[in-house]
Write a structure and sequence with these properties.
Blueprint: H1 6-15, H2 18-23, E1 30-32, E2 35-38, E3 50-53, E4 58-61, E5 67-69, H3 70-78, H4 82-93, H5 108-131, H6 136-144, H7 149-154, E6 158-160, H8 165-172, H9 177-182, E7 186-187, E8 194-195, E9 200-206, E10 212-219, E11 227-229, H10 249-255, E12 257-260, H11 264-272, E13 278-279, H12 288-297, E14 300-304, H13 309-324, E15 328-332, H14 340-356, H15 363-374, H16 381-395, H17 401-415, H18 419-428, H19 456-467, H20 484-496, H21 502-508, H22 512-522, H23 531-559, H24 567-579
Parallel strand pairs: 12-13, 12-14, 14-15
Antiparallel strand pairs: 1-2, 2-3, 3-4, 4-5, 6-9, 7-8, 9-10, 10-11
Helix pairs in contact: 1-4, 3-4, 11-14, 15-16, 16-17, 17-18, 19-22, 19-23, 20-21, 20-22, 21-22, 23-24
This protein binds zinc ion.
Zinc ion (ZN) is lined by residues 40, 42-43, 50, 61, 63-64, 66.
Length: 585
């Protein structure tokens, strides 16, 4: 037997929602705060202690200690092997499984180097936009599109001069050319390497953790294409990221809603006018992966695309993808035939809210209205039939049976046709997956998970690290931990922290007892306002205490005259006592 490539597992993870899988076995699973709670399927209990964290895609039971990712859940509950669990979920998600002889994919080290190169590029382009005399046209372009300085900063917009200016700067910084090429920043095709982006406005694309994974780039001249994305790389897949999601993630998390738009400029305009919950696919049709990503943070989405025919068609297609993924969807049109960014700049955020979002419709109604408006009057039975089929095709994507039936009834009224005929037609549309089979919990009592020594001090550090797994988190050292479990979890985290599904990868790489400690921390809900600062304070105090214990014996010996006085050491001792609020002796 070979191995399942990590890309396959990643594709499955990004498309399957753990809460949805768990609900089949835990019917009482309910959203509580940002995580789901229900009665554990692995042990008998009256009050729910089984938690699922949708954002991190992990579960943990505080009763019996089991925890893990979606694969671990299926393995345990169905009593199946790892590869079988992956295959089962892959099939469900429509991901083809291929087997390889060896493991492949970007290792953690390579990933880190690629992200470093991309981060350097983003800063380089930003610097060019702000300072380079050659960026005059770029600055004028952004001004003409009414991008504020604040928005330009928030989105870290930049300018790529081209030639080999970026390559030269990157080499000076010591970044290897093959990494730069792999990250899609330079092209090695000609005689000499040259910059991939030439005379373009640069829009850094950041993943949901804030790491720059690629760029969107708009030409300033007549060059084709008008918009160019970074090529796909081990860290960048344009079908799996949403532009603007990270920049507005705090707001999206708070309201659990998002506005899906079409382009970079729409998203920037929306953020600038008070809608930080706006995001967009990267100039391509919305994909199931992007829908699944959005669903983790926002179960409810309003789709607002351009007013032209292409935009409206894309809005319907996007709605269908979102509906299929089980999101609640509204579709809205921008009044007076404008594009969203034009409208926002001309009329402002309040008008956008009142005249666009507030008038949004359920996608079936949105589509039916469009089709009816375009149809020749009076409506012939043939026209009605073709409109009905088109709207029913959209309705068939809805996984919720009740909703499907209600929408069908509504369509019958709108078109003045018989409900029965429509229901028979729905029955014929390839509606996709059948209803999930309920399954009794496994009868076998699981063995309890062994407990590891895991003091709360270590849990506290790890909790804060997990909350901000981004690149800006303060550096932690092995010596900051008291327990072996704490150190092991931290070491495992360091290896996977830059990967998109790091929580799952972390749990996967730990032994059972430590896995349980980690999954317990991961399902916790709650995001402190400033986890970086809190971690800094915690570490400083921890380190001060350790140093204090180290020098205390020497201070005592000095006091007893057994050791020559050392003023510097005594001063350090007093300072440490103050810092840790301990009285000196
Ligand atoms: Zn349990």
């Amino acid at each position: 037997m070979g191995l399942i490539p990590s890309e396959t597992m990643e594709a499955v993870r990004s498309r399957v929602d753990i809460a949805e899988v768990v609900t089949r076995y835990v019917p009482d699973l309910r959203l509580s705060g940002r995580s789901f709670k229900g009665r554990c399927p692995f042990h008998q209990e009256k009050t729910p202690s089984f938690h699922v964290n949708a954002e991190r895609q992990t579960f943990h039971c505080f009763g019996c200690g089991v925890g893990g990712d979606v694969f671990a859940f299926l393995m345990k509950i169905e009593n199946m092997g790892f590869s079988e669990a992956v295959e089962r979920l892959a099939e469900r998600a429509g991901v083809p499984v291929s087997w390889t002889k060896e493991s492949s994919g970007a290792g953690g080290q390579e990933r880190r180097e690629l992200l470093e190169a991309l981060a350097f590029a983003a800063d380089f382009y930003r610097g060019c936009l702000l300072q380079s005399p050659r960026a005059e046209a770029a600055r004028n372009y952004l001004a003409s599109r009414k991008v504020s300085a604040q928005a330009s900063e928030a989105f870290h917009l930049g300018y790529a001069p081209g030639g080999s200016e970026f390559h030269a700067a990157a080499q000076k910084k010591g970044l290897a050319s093959d990494m730069l090429s792999k990250a899609g920043l330079i092209s090695m095709k000609g005689e000499r390497p040259r910059d991939y982006f030439f005379d373009r406005v640069m829009y850094p694309i950041r993943d949901a953790k804030g790491a720059t994974v690629g760029f969107g780039a708009r030409t300033l001249g007549d060059g084709e294409p008008k918009y160019l994305n970074s090529p796909e790389s081990p860290v960048f897949s344009k079908s799996r990221v949403l532009y603007g999601l990270w920049e507005g993630l705090n707001a999206v998390r708070r309201v659990r809603k998002a506005v899906l738009m079409e382009g970079y400029m729409d998203v920037i305009a929306a953020h600038q006018h008070g809608f930080p919950i706006a995001c967009a696919p990267l100039g391509t049709a919305l994909t199931p992966d992007q829908a699944a990503l959005l669903k983790r943070y926002a179960p409810s989405v309003a789709v607002v695309f351009d007013s032209d025919k292409a935009g409206q068609t894309a809005a319907i297609r996007g709605s269908a993808v979102l509906l299929t993924a089980g999101l609640s969807v509204r579709a809205a049109a921008v009044p007076s035939g404008k594009d969203p960014d034009e409208f926002l700049h001309q009329f402002g955020g309040q008008a956008f809210k009142d005249e666009c979002l507030a008038k949004s419709e359920s996608p079936d109604q949105f589509l039916a209205r469009k089709l009816l408006a375009a149809a020749p009057k009076p409506l012939t039975p043939e026209t009605k039939s073709s409109i009905a089929k088109e709207v029913l095709a959209l309705i068939s994507k809805v996984p919720d049976e009740i909703l499907k039936s209600e929408w069908t009834k509504r369509l019958a009224k709108t078109l003045d046709v018989s409900e029965d005929a429509l229901f028979r037609e729905v029955g014929r549309t390839p509606a996709g997956r059948g209803a999930p089979q309920a399954r009794p919990a496994p009868a076998a009592a699981p063995k309890a998970v062994p407990a590891a020594f895991f003091p709360s001090e270590d849990a506290q550090i790890l909790r804060l690290i997990f909350e901000n797994a981004g690149p800006s988190a303060p550096a932690v050292a092995e010596s900051d931990f008291i327990s072996e479990a704490g150190r092991n979890i931290w070491r495992a985290f360091e290896r996977v922290r830059s990967e998109p599904s790091w929580p799952a990868r972390l749990l996967e790489s730990l032994e059972e007892a430590e896995q349980s400690c980690a999954s317990g921390l991961l399902v916790e809900d709650g995001k402190s306002a400033d986890s970086d600062k809190a971690l800094e304070v915690l570490l400083a105090r921890r380190r001060a205490l350790r140093r204090l214990r180290e020098i205390e014996p020497q201070i005592r010996e000095m006091g007893a005259g057994k050791r020559p006085k050392d003023a510097a050491l005594q001063e350090e001792y007093l300072r440490l006592c103050l810092a840790t609020k301990r009285r000196g002796n």
